[in-house]
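Folding problem:
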Amino acid sequence: MKTKLLPIVAVLSAMAFTAQADNTNTNAYVTDSYGNIVVDSWGSCTRSINWTPETAIASCEKKKSATTPDNTKAIVADKPKKTCATKVNNDIKDNGLRGYAIDSDGDVVRDSWGACVRTIEWTEATEIAHCEGKEEPVVVVEEVVIVAPEPVVVAPVIVAPVTPIAKPKPAPQPTIAHLREFFDTNSAKLKPSAHAELDAYAEFLTAYPNQKVTITGHTDSRGEASYNQQLSEKRAKAVKAYLVNKGIDASRMETHGAGETQPIADNKTREGRAQNRRVEIELIK
């Protein structure tokens, strides 16, 4: 209950209160028509333009501990005692088994002795323990603890990068390759036995696309020198044509003929002459 304040005898200003000066020097403060010093809502005396420290009134200048002026008292009425009767609820709720008579609120009807009124359908199976003076059965609720399954950690499958297997480059050819016994006597036609060795050289030139070569044809000493010169040139061109057919750019190959001027074996023997009927491929540095 809220505290009720009794009316104060004197009617106070909404913005200021009054206090009796403790001496006659009131020119330093604002006074009302009764000569009382006007006090503001904080309990402080209202100074005038004539106020100086010498004219100050000690009781006006001391700090107030409360906002209520000194000449006013708040009268608080006695708080009335609350006398409310506490209602004790002794109602017994029906269990829905129709063993007792119930009222409109769903409570069991009691007789003048406080006993529950049974119906003709009452049995021990439908009874309410509290109605029969028995202790209510304690229902134990079994706590079910649900354990969350542990997360299954699947290890990531790390796939190693597949490194492509580079095709090995053929072994570098010698500076000068001597392709011997590629031609019959007086012929610029390549023998079938020469194809395997020329194929290997074509692979070499494919692996090194910036490499250029010089192809020089040679003959043995039989026949005229001028004829042998032309024959050697034809043999060089026959080798170039074979390599072009294998995909080698013709601009990478130069052809020359040396005739019979540069033998590497004795022309007096059959074996020597076969060695001199050759083609040399030289790498251009």
The chain has a mean pLDDT of 76. The first helix runs from residue 58 to 61.
